[in-house]
Amino acid sequence: MIKDTGVGPAARRAQAVLESPRNRALFVDIDGTLLGMAPTPDGVCVPPRLVCLLGELAQRLGGAVALLTGRRIANADRLFEPLRLIASGVHGTELRSEKGGEIAMLAEPLSPLLAEAITGLGAIASGILIERKGSGIAVHYRHAPALRQALECELGAIVASRDDLVLRRGRMVLEIGPRGFSKGSALALLASRPPFAGRCPVMVGDDVGDESALLEAERLGGVALRVAGEHFSREAADFAGVASVHAWLEALAAALRLQGEKRSS
Q1: Could you count the other beta carbons within 10 Å of the beta carbon of residue 9?
Q2: What is the domain partition of the chain in residue ranges?
Q3: Domain 11-106+181-264 - what CATH class?
Q4: For domain 112-178, is the CATH number 3.40.228.10?
Q5: Coil, helix or strand for 107?
Q6: pLDDT (tens digit, 9 = 90+) per residue, 169-217?
Q7: Which residues does the annotation mark as catalytic?
Q8: DSSP per-residue letters across 202-230
Q9: What is the side-by-side order of every strand in the sheet holding 137-140?
Q10: Over the stretch 224-264, which tens digit does the pLDDT of each residue have?
């Protein structure tokens, strides 16, 4: 057993993966899962060891490691330089299906007129941060939490008048994007292709936007691992927080190393 992997009975799921790491495919969220939350998206801290660890896991799992994030893939690449892992960005609307490969846009960008209208909401208060993401746009209100209801009302009205858009709620953020795309759709697509096809999917996430991927991993016969925080309670989570996820990833790498040594002996 490893220490502090999680809390409650749910933590046994994480331990079961360590005890049987063979033929797994790892899908993992970034913010709140791999990295701690920060006041702004660019303010996150990336431990150098984490970059090496993700690279080792990708190598030992035959490339079957993917980042599923609400960020743009290019943004994730800057965080984890020099890695260029298989990834889905902006809730399934961007895809890199091969390590180091090109990024494909699966959805049309938001119209400039709509993007400008949403960007204008940033003038309501200095604490609102608007993040344009091509096919999506996020309104961060961590520094203006009292405005959540007003912002949700404004964005909800925009979505209500369109049948091609959805409003996503996350950790102190509201995001508009195209309907029909999610982290769940991204996981399903990648799981059907090499190097993920035929492997047991393991999804790790912490927020509302991760729920579709967690459910899809379970639907495919895999494992859904939840990180405690602002969305999942400690009682329901498999991990107590980001540090616990890092400890588990280290243990997974160690289990895979041991497995490799047994094969070669």
Answers
A1: 10
A2: 11-106+181-264, 112-178
A3: alpha beta
A4: no
A5: coil
A6: 988 999 999 999 999 999 999 999 999 999 999 999 999 999 999 999 9
A7: 29
A8: EEEE-SGGGHHHHHHHHHTT-EEEEBBTT
A9: 129-132, 137-140, 173-178, 165-170
A10: 999 999 899 999 899 999 999 999 999 999 999 998 777 77
